[in-house]
Each structure stands twice: as C-alpha cells, then as structure tokens.
Amino acid sequence: MPFRFFTRKTLFPGVTLNLSRSGPSISFCPRGLRHTIGPRGRRTTVGLPGTGLHYTTLHGKKCRTQRDNNTGGEPANPAPPPAPPPAVDPAAGQAEEDRVFLRAVVAFQGGAAPDDLRPPLENLKAGDAHWVLGMAAFQAGDWPGAISALQAALGSNDLGALCARNGVTLQIAVPITPEVTAHVEPAPQATKLVLVEALQASGDLRKALAMLKDLNAGAPEDFVIAMSLAEIAFELDDGRSMTMGWLAGILSAAVPDPDLSWALAFYTARARTRCGDHNDAIKLYTQAMAHPAVPEDMRMLAWYEKALTHDEAGDRTRYRQELSGIYAADKTFADVEDRLKRTKTIVNRRFSR
Q: Could you tell me the pLDDT band of residue 305, with boundaries at 50, 70 and 90?
C-alpha cells in the first residue's frame, strides 16, 4: 500500500522506536536527517522538516549501469568500410536523465516554484517527473497544473521507475481530511488519491467522487479512501451522487488504524444521522467521544452533533442536557448559547399557557 500509518515513540532525544507492520526499527534523527536500522536493513532519510518530502538511501544497495562493450575481433579486410555514425550510449542518456530528475527533486525540496521545475521535468517525459511536478503544483495550490501533471503521471507506463532506478524513495504528506494525512509515493493508487484532492479543491466534486468510487471498489477495506469519499459525499450531500445509506455501508467496511477509529465512528454517525438512524448515530458519536486518541476539538464537535441528533429524534430533554454539558465545558462553542436560550424560551412559553 502507498499509504503508511505507523507509531513512533521517543526513547530519548534524537532516538525513536518506530512500530509498523513490517516490524520495529530504531531511528537516530537530528533535525532534517534520519538514520534507521530495522528489518529492511539500514537507510538514511534526508529531508527539510515540515515539507513532507524525504530522500531515502538504502545502504548496501549498489546501482549498476549496464554499458555496451565492443569486443568484436579484428576485421578480415585491412581496408575497413566507413565507420557508421557513433551509437548513442543508452547508459549515458540514463545518467543525464537521473541527474536532471534528482536536481529537480532537491530544488522542489528546497521550495522551488512549479514554474521553475516545469522546464526540466517536462523535458524528461517520465512518469516520476510528471509526479514531482504535479505534487509541486498541488502544494502551491495550482489545481489545474496539479490535475494536468498528475493525469500525465498516471497515463505513463513507468511511474516509479526513475525512483527505483536511483534507489530513492519520495514520500509526501497530503492531508486527506482534517483528521487524516496520507503519505503518498509515486504509485498509481496514491497518485489517484492526490488527484482526487486536487479535483475537490478545484470544485469538480462529482469527478472526484467518481474516482473515489472506483478506488473503493478495488479496496473496500482502505480507510483513507473511505474517509476521502465520505468527506466529498458530505460536501455534495445532494442525495443523487451518493445516498447516505450507501456511504454508511462503505464506512462500515473500512478497516481503520486503531488510533483513528474515532474518525471512522464520527463519519459513520454523520451518515447514519442523514439516513434517520438516530439511535445508531448517537451510539457512534458516543463511541467517537470516548476514544482515548480523539482530539479535544473533534470530541466537542461529536458531542455537539450528538446533541443535534437528539433534537432531530424528538428528544428535547436530552437535547437540552447535551447542550448544557457542552456549554459548561466551553461557553463559546458554536451556537450552543443561542440554542440553549431558544430552548428555555420554548419551555417558558409552555409553562405560561
């Protein structure tokens, strides 16, 4: 999978223990540099903090370039025919392509603008070159440029080849929802997900949703795809592009990272509320609120939406109780104060009759 979620624990300053499905590893990491020893061998990652882009070298891996050697025997005729035009050395062409690509990667990592990267990368006509250009445009908020370059990367038949040939790994952090960040690499599925985000940002929600439906059909258990799909479905929320019952089923089939299961419960609760399944929604909101890893702002939002669900279900008493609890925790949260005033006004009118 091109999306990785892992747990990192600090043993002492500059040394961390990384826990993932591939096994534990130890990292020695001064700012901007990481050296890791783990089950996959030793690797050094160099990156600018905050960019989400890392350049990883695998130690002990040798890059070999094959070159043609002319080992023909002596010609039988002492007067040889005219020499043919000199052959182009494919290895030399590859080496130049590699140099241009890696320079562009370093420039991107250093904050170069997409317009500065475009001439050298477009001349390469390689999938990885289009990918880097697309990611640069994406990070700069140039949605048409990102869409065009990422589509070109996906249309190539060599996406990932330049990176593999040079023994390097490119990985960029892309926020998928406010709760989830995916670490994407030049691989088809990851690139499609970034393309979806660019389409969403450009306002083409229906095309983005159609792509996500295709991705979900191939990987229904993929939590990141399901969350991205839910976010766009809620943004459209027109009942035609996707019914909330269908969305609830998609979310139920996703398998989240344990630390993010609260987010899945929260989004599923929203879908259930829109389906009129108020009891299930309230249970899921409660589950999201109780999760030990839920951020405080998301816990408050789940609490608020839980209160609104009680109101939709016709339980005004629980609605007021939940609003009072939220108000006690944070008097400035959303429109809780106004809602409480309105409920008190309604109660006073009933008693005055």
A: very high
What integer pLDDT is reported at residue 105 of this predicted model? 84
CA distance 70 to 132: 37
- Structural domain contains residue 319: yes
pTM of this structure: 0.64
The mean pLDDT of 79-88, rounded to a whole number, is 52
**What's the one-letter identity of residue 277?**
D
Collapsing DSSP to helix, strand or coil, 185 comes out as coil
Q: Return the pLDDT at 75.
A: 42
State how far the Cα of 340 lies from the Cα of 233, in Å rounded to an integer: 30
In 33-178, alpha helices (H): 90-109, 114-124, 127-139, 143-155, 161-166
- Classify 17 as helix, strand or coil: strand
- Strand 7-12 vs strand 41-46: parallel, antiparallel, or unpaired? unpaired
In the numeric block, which tokens belong to residue 175? 């926020």
CATH number at residue 314: 1.25.40.10
The tokens for 120 are 């050298």
- Long-range contacts at 176-182 (CB < 8 A, ≥ 24 apart): 176/224, 176/227, 176/228, 176/231, 177/227, 177/228, 177/230, 177/231, 177/263, 179/227, 179/260, 179/263, 179/266, 179/295, 179/298, 180/223, 180/224, 180/227, 180/260, 180/263, 182/3, 182/224
What is the rounded average pLDDT of the residues 47-55? 39
Please give the distance of CA 125 from its chain centroid, rounded to a whole number.
25
Total domains present in the chain: 1
- The conformation of residue 87, written as its DSSP 8-state character, comes to P
Q: Does residue 284 lie in a domain region?
A: yes
308 domain residue, yes or no: yes
Instruction: End-to-end CA distance of the chain: give it in Å, rounded.
Output: 64
Residue 185 sits at the vertex; the CA angle it makes with 140 and 187, to the nearest 5 degrees, is 115
User: What tokens were used for 268?
Assistant: 């599923």
Whether 260 is covered by a domain: the verdict is yes
Sequence length of the chain is: 353
Query: Is 227 within 8 Å of 267 (Cβ atoms)?
Result: yes
Domain carrying residue 265: 256-353
